[in-house]
Amino acid sequence: MKRLLLTGNGAAAWGARLAQVDYIPAFPITPQTEIIEAIGQWIDSGEMAGRMVTLESEHSMITAAGAAAATGVRVFSATSSQGLLYGMEMLYTVSGWRAPFVLMNVSRGLSAPITLEPDHNDILAARDSGFLQIHCSTCQEVLDSTLLAYRLAEDEGVRLPVIVNLDGFYLSFTREPVEIPDQEQVAKFLAPFDPQNTRFRASTPESQAVAVLGGAPYSYFRYETHLAALNAIDVYDRIADEFTELFGRHYAAAESYRCDDAEYLFIMMGSFATKAKAAVDQLRDAGWHIGLLRPRLLRPFPEKLFQQALTVTKGVAVIDQNISMGKGGVLYTELASVLAGRAESAPLLLSFIGGLGGRDITAEEFYEMAETTRKAVEDGQAPPPRLLYTEAELRETRKLQAIAQAECSKLGNDK
Amino acid sequence: MFRIRFHGRGGQGMKTASRILGTAFFVEGYEVQDAPRYGAERRGAPIFAYVRAAPEPINERGIIQRPDLVIVADDTLVPVPAAGVLAGADEHTVLLINSHESAETWIERLNLQGPLLILPILEEVEDRAELPFIGATCAGAAARLVGMISRASLEQAIRDELEHLGPTIVDKNLHKSLEAFDLMAEQAGSVTPAPVLPARKWERPAWIELPFEDARLSSPTIYAGATSEKLKTGLWRTMRPVIDYEHCNRCWWICSTFCPDGAIPVKEDGYPEIDYEHCKGCLICVAQCPPHAIAAIPEHQFQEDEPEGEES
Fold first, then answer.
1. What is the mean pLDDT of chain A?
2. CA dist list (Å): B60 to A310, A349, B20, B304
3. pLDDT at B309 (0 to 100)
4. pLDDT digits (tens, 9 = 90+) for B13-58
5. What average pLDDT does range A33-56 have in this prediction?
6. % of residues, chain A, pLDDT over 90
7. Would the CB atoms of B32 and A406 count as touching at under 8 Å?
8. CB-CB contact of A389 with A361 (8 Å)
9. Does the beta carbon of B199 lie under 8 angstroms from any beta carbon of chain A?
10. Beta strands A254-257; A290-295: pairing state
11. Does position A119 have pLDDT exceeding 90, yes or no?
């Protein structure tokens, strides 16, 4: 074991290296490229075995990943944002093949307009694809989650591909201390992939998922994929316990931070959740009973865990770093479905949307969200969803608009 | 927790500076977070990098709102609004500027509340985008100013971070960095961690209800290239192409066509004219000009020769 300063991308590459992956189909996209660059260098220098192939697009890359996984080798790949969306058709297809592999997604806001910085609309677009999803908040968690993801994907009760998500810039390019476990220790946790009978072999012709099916058989396969994903909740808990025994770090399906006795909760995913932790510490110092609940597993969704965690809470601020146009925060909607129809009184759920395209969420904003939640509980009514945006930010945008419009009249585009 | 920000231009090694300082803190037993921040990657454009260091695990993340120390590797960035050099700086923040000019000049110019130090520029360089060893130099100065990093830890950090560049480059960086470390001896420990923003009382964020605006305004449309005129990308330039009209043979199209930014219009008399408000100094025109009639001179030299330069 050694402890080094590593970026989130470096930690992801180390995860693949320690998992001793066999095949890495790759295609570059900012801010993910450093992952495949690191792996490429290790393969060149002989520090890592495995075969890396650069494909002509993410669509081909995910096809290659799924096809290789179906032959029984261990596969790793990585993408981001537009790349993930370009491969979207194949995300649904390869999960239907029940081909287990790990795909890193480095979250970056979607076009248009274009940004390089993170939010979660890219990864949430893949929510219903059949890939399981693990969301990380630190660089250490990126490395550890990669190892957990292989165990989860390859478990005979699951057999589904897994996306491990890390935020662009805030993790991908940020160095933090990361413990790199020894290869022997990892081998105790993660044995070589045993595909059992679900394996394509050379010279033994087979085909998979090519027949055009009617509703009944089609439904059967879709339902089975859903049941496998649901199985992954219990499988994950078992694997996470094994991981703790070997490495000492524990990763629950959802992280609870200072939630005991909490009357109020922040709920949010990804690296910005560590900012919420810092806010929780300060609010606790100021006398608040407040905590943070952070989903790590989004698919499958650990519904029972949330039901239990929310029983004693008065008010919950759900902070979504994503936006579903015409509805609002995706996580907010998911949590509302957890609370619907419960016999006991449910906590008041407030929706905040922020951090789009890497827009910062300041300490003051966390405090203000807590205060807004407290007031709403007093009034017994949740305010409408809050789109985090300040006067100063609108002024800045107005300046850009003024520039963009400057030549409008000259070009005959006058309003 | 220490919160430190490095400002420079793409190519000057600010990411390296943050990594050297981060590793030096790490060697001293600190928990560390270091990261660069930039938009679309471009040589010469403003970038910054930051370091957080604390005895306990760090939960803060992303840009530093209230820096304890701001280091400016290239003083031509100070007046560039997009560089945000002074963002969040207050009377607690130490500002260290790499400059020819005196501390008094900068204090007066910036109307500063907090302390300001100068990292003197000791040698002239042709291209400021290549200020030699400036990353390691800035990291060395910062390491001394926080007062928690030994000379040996700084040295180890430089060896760790730059090893891949070979021993000659490591030695040069070591020399420069330790020189800056020693230069800051009198100010050792003058940078201290500001307290965390408490949650008992805070300035309420000025949230607004964003109004609906129709798509004629709220679509991200840029109306023709003409709007780019408003953005003076000439501020990124570190080298200036200069046309020698005595040798220009009025071919009328080569420099103008190769210019990737359309910054060389051709006048009616057939001579090209460089638009310095938008020329980024890539010097493709210098390489393409058939009679070699375009020279490249360092921008800072031009500014010194003609302080009231007629253009940017």
1. 94
2. 26, 25, 20, 42
3. 44
4. 999 999 999 999 999 999 999 999 877 666 778 899 999 999 999 9
5. 97
6. 87
7. no
8. no
9. yes
10. antiparallel
11. yes
- The CATH architecture that domain A2-196+208-247 belongs to is 3-Layer(aba) Sandwich (3.40)
A198-207, B51-60, B87-96, B97-106: range with lowest mean pLDDT: A198-207
Flag whether pLDDT at A369 surpasses 70: yes
Cβ contact (<8 Å) for A116 and B224? Answer: no
Q: What's the pLDDT at B128?
A: 61
pLDDT of residue B310: 45
Residue B178 in this model has a pLDDT that exceeds 60: yes
CB contact under 8 Å between B199 and A286, yes or no, is yes
**In this predicted structure, which of A244-248, A322-326, B266-270 has the lowest mean pLDDT?**
B266-270
Q: Which residues of B touch A415 (CB under 8 A)?
A: 216
Q: Are B6 and B14 in contact (CB under 8 A)?
A: yes
What homologous superfamily does CATH list for B2-187?
Pyruvate-ferredoxin oxidoreductase, PFOR, domain III (3.40.920.10)
The pTM of the full predicted model, rounded to 2 decimals, is 0.90
Domain spans of chain B, in order of start = 2-187, 231-305
Cβ neighbours of B203 in A, within 8 Å: 364
How far does the CA of residue B84 sit from the closest CA of chain A (Å)?
A: 13
Asked if A282 and B58 come within 8 Å (Cβ–Cβ), the reply is no
d(CA A220, CA A216): 6
Residue B223: pLDDT over 90: no
Residues in Cβ contact with B118 at an 8 Å cutoff, skipping those fewer than 6 apart: B96, B97, B98, B99, B101, B102, B103, B106
The answer to whether A15 touches A145, Cβ cutoff 8 Å, is yes
Q: Of A23-27, A60-64, A333-337, B301-305, give the lowest mean pLDDT range.
A: B301-305
Interface test with A, best of B18, B21, B59 (most A CBs within 10 A): B59
Query: Chain A residues with CB inside 8 Å of B39's CB?
Result: 116
Question: How large is the ipTM?
Answer: 0.94
Q: DSSP 3-state helix, strand, coil percentages of chain B (rounded to 5)?
A: 35, 15, 50
The CATH number corresponding to A254-394 among 3.40.50.880, 3.40.50.920, 3.30.750.24, 3.40.50.170 equals 3.40.50.920
Angle, CA B218 vertex, CA B215 and CA B221 arms, to 5°: 90
Asked whether residue B224 carries a pLDDT value surpassing 60, the answer given is: no
Give me B228's structure tokens. Answer: 């780019």
Instruction: Convert the pLDDT of each residue in B211-222 to its tens digit.
Output: 999 998 898 877
**CATH class label, B231-305:** alpha beta
SS3 of B52, please? strand
Residues sharing a CB contact under 8 Å with residue B189, sequence separation 6 or more, in sequence order: B145, B146, B147
Which part of chain A is CATH 3.40.50.920? 254-394
Burial of B230 by CB count in 10 Å (0-12 exposed, 13-18 middle, 19+ buried)? middle
The full DSSP string for A9-21 is HHHHHHHHHHTT-
Tokens of A212: 């055009």
Tokens of A239: 């694997």
Comparing CA positions, the residue from A323, A71, A102 lying closest to residue A199 is A71
Tokens for B140, please give them: 């060395």
**What would the two tokens of residue A48 be?**
């890592």
What 3-state class would DSSP assign to B22? helix
Which of B 10-69 lie inside 8 A of A, CB atoms? Answer: 19, 22-23, 26, 31-37, 39-40, 58-63, 65
Q: Which of B3, B30, B207 best tests the A interface by mutation, with the highest count of A CBs <10 A?
A: B207
Query: CA B25, CA B42: separation in Å to the nearest integer?
Result: 29
